[in-house]
User: What shape does this take?
Amino acid sequence: MRSINIGIIGVGNVGSSTILLLEKNKDIISARAGVDIVIKKGIVRDVNKVNKNIKIPISDNIKDVLDDDSIDIVVELMGGIDIAFDVAKKALSNNKAFVTANKAMLAYHRYDLQKIAGDTPICFEASVAGGIPIIKALRDGLSANHIMSIRGILNGTCNYILTKMTNDKLDFNQCLKEAQRLGYAESDPKLDISGMDSAHKLLILASIAYGVNAIPEDILVEGIDLINQDDIFFANEFGYVIKLLAIAKKIDSDVELRVHPVMINKDEMISKVSGVMNGISVIGDTVGETMYYGAGAGGNATASSVVSDIIEVARDSSSSMFGFKQPLESGLKIKSISSIESKYYLRINVFDKAGVLSKITSILGDNGISIKMLLQKKSNHEGIATLLLSTHRSNELSIRKAISSLCKLDVVYDKPYMIRIEE
Ligand code: NDP
Ligand code: HSE
Assistant: This one.
């Protein structure tokens, strides 16, 4: 059987699992690829840190892969943006196919790479939702549809933390440590908890669904680090769960792209996606709603997607990078953040004295915001009470103005916290 040579840059969590998977399932992989896949070299910074079960030649010099003419596919599993982008450019300009799990780099440079690549394959299934084949589903399986919306739990670390905080009433930092120990978090976990990692993934999906070119700074991104047990209590009381959602919606000729925590009805299918699992609902104009579910992080799940890309290249069956042979003539625009509409939840810590509530309701009223539900809880601080409330439908501009006025009230203890309600 013919063979194809690969070089793997980054032999950490995902890299090691990829190498072990290529070995464990060699028979089925070769049968499906039609070639033997030979790993010529793995690259790391510190050769002493490599997992003892890895038996391939290892080097700490990236050039050993990029300048090796016998290597057909460069598999980039190192992470980071700038060096990874240089690696990608060099690999493509040396006519090597490029496989990556690096959503951070793709969030900024995917269109640069597309230009450089020409007909050389670039595959990135593992960059979004770990083991779920969402790239191939969206790009190929749903290619006949206008995509009306995507709503996804795209970060395993955040979903794990929120699930643990909800079910076991554990503290945020304790849950984050556990997610790191299990290998779900990025080397810099701020990327996960700030919502940035989900934004990176959403932008990749948006390129496939809508052909739009945006970077994280163009869209609304909020993380989960300020969520506390009061918010979870309110959600539970009123039939919601809190999830970090990445949302893309087509509204006329605009596309709304945003990542933030939401309170969402407990009965929705996506609300049942727990722990490290990811879940994505995609609505096509013709197919209707489709749902995708699976492990969104972790070595094995991610390796499954990386190897599927290697097989795709080996079969010579790669599609165009985002599934467009020519640009969409209509050209969709990114909707401005200020025009986003939603219902809102607010947590407001106030000094526990007479007249406070009327001051708060009058600020909300002045901004055209009407309250739907209200609870008052004792806080852990002496003399401070916590108001938890939800509103009827409003918009981003009004809620932001209201929060800024609330901050200036002498009866408000600290900055109110807001979560959008997705209904
Ligand atoms: P790890 O930190 O476990 O591994 C990174 C590997 O890359 C290490 O072997 C590291 O070497 C090597 N590396 C980093 N920088 C360099 C460099 N400048 N030169 C040479 N080698 C380098 O990361 P993961 O395996 O978790 O993640 C890898 C990629 O996969 C990232 O892009 C991540 O976002 C993505 N991903 C991860 C998932 C997960 O569940 N972990 C899921 C989906 C995608 P050394 O150890 O010597 O520093
Ligand atoms: N840190 C990421 C997550 C890895 O938790 O989802 C998968 O992309």
